[in-house]
Amino acid sequence: MSVKPIKGDAVLFWSMGLDGQSDPNSIHGGCEVLSGEKWSATKWMRQKPTF
């Protein structure tokens, strides 16, 4: 899959299924920035408390 960037848009995907197992379809990468800037943000959503 590829996503064409549009200013102001975002991409959201889940890296695990509801069973807590990693989803191999979520493996991803990014392309080299040839001009301008690339911004990235991560939001972790957990099923259980980590403390």
Automatic annotation (TrEMBL):
Protein name: Prolyl 4-hydroxylase alpha subunit Fe(2+) 2OG dioxygenase domain-containing protein
GO annotations of cellular component type: endoplasmic reticulum membrane
Species in which this protein is naturally found: Gossypium harknessii
Broad class of where this protein is predominantly found: endoplasmic reticulum
Prolyl 4-hydroxylase alpha subunit Fe(2+) 2OG dioxygenase domain ranges (all copies): 2-46
GO MF annotation: an example: procollagen-proline 4-dioxygenase activity
Keyword annotations: Iron, Metal-binding
Pfam families named among the record's database cross-references: 2OG-FeII_Oxy_3 (PF13640)
Intracellular or extracellular location(s): Endoplasmic reticulum membrane
